[in-house]
Amino acid sequence: MSKTAGNPKISNLNDLLAVAYQVEIDAVDRYNVLADQMETHNNPELVKVFRDLARAEGIHGEEIRRLAGDFDVAAHARDIAKFGRADSPEEADLGAAHYLMTPWHALQLSLAGEERALAYFTSIVETAKDPKVKALAAELVEEEAEHVSLVHRLLRRYPKPDDSWADDLDPPVSQE
Amino acid sequence: MAASPSISIAIVGSGGAGALTTGNSLLEAACAAGWYGLLTRTLGPQIRGGEAAALLRLAVNPVEGLPDQFDLLIGIDWLNAHRFGSEIKAGPGTLVISDPRGGDQPPMVTQSGARVFEIPMKEMAKTIPDGRPNMIALGIAGRLLDLTIEQVFAPIEKLLADKGPAAIEASHAGIKIGFGAAAGADFGTPLASPNPSSARRWLLSGNEATALGAIRGGVRFAAAYPITPATEVLEWLAPSLAKVGGVLLQAEDELAAINMIIGSSFGGTPALTATSGPGLSLMIEALGLATSAEIPVVVVDVMRGGPSTGIPTKSEQADLNIAVYGLHGDAPHLVLAPQSVGDCMFTTQWATYLAETLQSPAIVLSDQFMGQTRAAIERPADVAFIGARTVATDIAGAYERYALAANGVSPMAIPGTRGGQYTADGLTHSQRGIPTSGAADHLAQLDKRRDKLDHFNYGDHWAAIEGAGELAVLTWGSLTSAAREAIARATKDGIDVRLVAPRLLLPTQPERLAKAFYGVKRILVIEQTHGGQFHRYLRAHYDLPAPVRVFNRPGPLPITAGEIYRAITEWR
Amino acid sequence: MSTVDTQRAYKQADYKSDIKPIWCPGCGDYHVLMSFTRAFAQLGLPPEQIAVISGIGCSSRIPAYTNCYGFHGVHGRSLALAAGLKVTRPDLTVVVASGDGDGYSIGGNHFLHACRRNVDMTYVVMDNHIYGMTKGQPSPTTEPEFDTALSPGGTKVRPFHPLVVALASGANFIARCFSGEPNETAAVLVEAIKHPGFSFVEILSPCVTFRPDEKAWKDLVHPAPVAATTDPGKAARRIMTDDGFNIGILYRGNRTPFQPAVGAINIDLSELEKDFEL
User: Fold this and answer.
1) Chain B: residue nearest C22 by CA?
2) B261 and B271 in contact (C-beta within 8 Å)?
3) Which of A11, B199, B558, C110 has its CA 20 to 30 A from that of B381?
4) Is residue C204 within 8 Å of residue C276, measured between CB atoms?
5) Which letter does DSSP use for residue B380 in this model?
6) Which chains touch C (3 or more CB pairs under 8 A)?
7) Touching check for A83 and chain C: CB below 8 Å?
């Protein structure tokens, strides 16, 4: 299956604004789901990490909304921002979560998301016909590149945990 | 200062803290050093990473109940620990070890008047490569109990044997640090030294004991459908049956499981399954079939909170009604109830023996508290109860599967026996086993099936009857141990109490119970139900010749010896 | 299924309750919940018009996590609950949620008859090839060599083929999805719900705690190479020979859904006495 099959069709600037907005909103929701999971599973350090990440993505989303001015990006996004088989580009991989995960793991998820978003907007720069769309996509590419660098910087603060990070001597519990 | 014969410890932690492992290791270390003890646990709703508390009691003599209050409470962290408030009680005599970075201490600590000693277990763990706070906690507990470091190391070395030397080294280091850190804590009352003894002892859970009892009683086939809190019975049986040439089959559901064991038994192989309330409900129809067709089977019900899906991880005694009355029609059968972790083995073995001897299904009412508690016990004596079915051999003439016999037990032809061919049936049948709607046959077979159970001599195992006094405490199942402890305390205070705890609930034993009540002027019934099921069962089938008080409470909280003691002393 | 409410656009969030799941982080069921809410939003159904019926097991916890009507029933009987509900309330959209243990083991018999009966509902089974909730016993779809405490060395019993059984028993729509592709799954659920009769959707949903080996599933799943067929013979061949990771709608039938006429008929009850009159 081609990489772009199933991606939303972007015909004009408003389409791109709506899709870019949705990408950020999806990321916010995803980080909040992960924060909720960490809260239920008694991992308070990761609750903070994920809420911080959610907040950061929320700010990006707000910036896009402001760029759009009076145009209702949220409504338009509901119509057109449908990604094919998988999650939208910046959504962290739920399957990679773990109740004992460390900040390093969370940042790896975030990094993967930012890199996917970067690749996605890059593909729009390459394929867009409308010069306005091309221009905005190029700006989004630069934004995402900055995010990627930021996550790399954050990763330097958190060392990769050793192999025993997921060891829990207590067995799982049967609840039913 | 005076030493105490028993100390209780709660270890609390969450999200991978390993509280349960810590508790288990401590139990093993203490038992290896000669003490007795038990371990149970309480948990949050998560499958992994939830808040958890290991609840231990260590003692000089065997114990099987939890105290009203804990002497030592170690909080590896306090995340969501407030949820355990009603189960973990602390008081001014309690020492609490708390990690200052472990979250807010819950009300059960702050409002209890307990002494708090802070030890930064998390930070200390970080000073060791691969260090874990729970190893520090284990070291602390070991030191406070005056165990040696080697005694505390031993179970951990066993546990981590296949994790490699680095993991073992990290645990050693953590335990050492914990030992050092505890030096500054003032525990108060030490645990009295263990009795030097050459008695053989076991450390096991009620579910494991149940499974062993089954095999000792002759069970060689088990059908399994997993259900909390019974699954461990079946998981222990799977490899163990294979070792003795038996088989365990996983069934697609409880309807299949009960019918599979009936099939096995029909073919001559004693069979058992283990389930809990919801599963027993499903098995009821087939239990009626086994009753009518006179095919022995054993069904263990490890009771949990009900009704319906209920509280799967907690204990209750409210399946008495369905075990005794659940079968439609008039269908007398056997119902037994173990009284302790060790008694799970005896009672299951005895139930198998009785089922086989009397050609009847037997329901064994265990419960989550006994089933999932690990306890150190004296190795029980070998008993000679091994299932001995009356089998028809050398059959001449027309075989009558359900022939009337003096003791009501008709020799059973095992498939393969020439001349013994018959069709087992749930339909009402004649002595030859032919379906009939006739009045005489129906009555004859009903009488036979009732009388074979009623006229059997069950001996003294039918109940634990201990002590003498004007007050009788009448209880059953896992509450027996708590009642025993309460009575011991009352006796020290000069109050004489008789304990009456039936192990055989069906068929009822009216004459024997009447004897047990000689001289009794007050009857205190204790049970863990909301509807007073045991009390109503007693009233339905027995004379209660003195005023009765009932102390009943549903799960999930256990009824403690302290509470029973108070009920005893309040009724003079 | 019910008519789409075009008056009000529902968002995904409208279908989520505020109860936080106890599923382990990493569990495929989080994605399935997302697929449910996405599908419901795409269909535009009012949350109160949807009933999510389940049995017992990790997957069966899903009703409480939605903002729809829900029934967390007893083990293995969700299809029976759902049949009673839908036949008397054809106006509701009924979605049944189960797992490979609840649905194919104790629920196996009800599965056969639900396919046969063909009442209009959608049956979603989150298959993780293990009994998760009771700590790792083999399920009917567990590989025969998979070692567990209850079956040391593996069951040595051939796994169940739920899609084949569904087809043979009369299911009117058969699909397989992967939880890690929530948008694709949502799209299939939309089709399944719209399709009349009994729609069966098996969702491969990895268990992070008892089957960490299932992380490999994301590399094993692949889109079905051909479009769904309406020919049961062709479908049987494809489904019987697929590798278990074939993703997509595999069969669409055209059986008429089973739905007796219900609705009050007001007659004078004395009409019913005529038979007794002497």
Assistant:
1) B46
2) yes
3) B558
4) no
5) P
6) A, B
7) yes
C2 within domain boundaries: no
Give CA separation, A87 vs A82, A94, C34, C62, C176, in Å: 9, 10, 10, 20, 18
Once rounded to an integer, what is the mean pLDDT over residues A53-80? Answer: 93
- pTM of the entire structure? 0.93
Residue C142: name the closest of C133, C134, C132, C201 by CA: C132
User: B26 and chain A: CB distance < 8 Å anywhere?
Assistant: no
Nearest residue in C to A166, CA atom? C209
Cross-chain Cβ contact C21/A40 below 8 Å: yes
Q: Strand, coil or helix: what is A104? A: helix
Residue C1 lies in a domain: no
For B401, the 3-state DSSP assignment is coil
β-bridge pairing C173-178 and C198-204 = parallel
Would you call A41 and B46 a contact, using CB atoms and an 8 Å cutoff?
A: yes
CA distance C114 to B286: 25
| Domain-located, residue C59 | yes
State how far residue C256 is from chain A, nearest Cα, in angstroms: 31
Which residues in chain A are closer than 8 Å to B309, comparing Cβ atoms? 176
Number of domains in chain C: 1
Q: Hey, what are C149's tokens?
A: 């405490």
Chain B nearest C-alpha distance from C239 (Å): 24
Which element (helix H / strand E) includes B565?
helix B561-569
Cβ contact (<8 Å) for B48 and A44? Answer: no
Question: For the sheet containing B247-250, what is the strand order?
Answer: B247-250, B221-224, B271-275, B297-303, B361-367, B334-336, B504-506
**What are the phi and psi torsion angles at B275 (to 5°)?**
-155, -170
Surface of A (4-33) touching C: CB under 8 A: 6, 33
Question: How far, in Å, CA of B527 to CA of C60, rounded?
Answer: 33
Task: Tell me the sheet residues that pair with A70.
Answer: none
| Mutate which: C29, C137, C158, vs B, most B CBs within 10 A | C137
With an 8 Å Cβ cutoff, is B226 touching chain C? yes
Instruction: Could you please state the CATH topology (level 3) that the domain comprising A13-160 is classified under.
Output: Ferritin (1.20.1260)
Which residues on A lie below 8 Å from B20 (Cβ)?
Answer: 170-171
Does residue C88 form part of some domain? Answer: yes
Domain harbouring C120, CATH code: 3.40.50.970
Tokens of B440: 């005489």
pLDDT interval class at A6 (50, 70, 90): confident
Q: What digits encode the pLDDT tens for the residues A97-144? A: 999 999 999 999 999 999 999 999 999 999 999 999 999 999 999 999
Residues of chain C positioned with their CB less than 8 A from the CB of B308: 74
Complex confidence, ipTM: 0.89
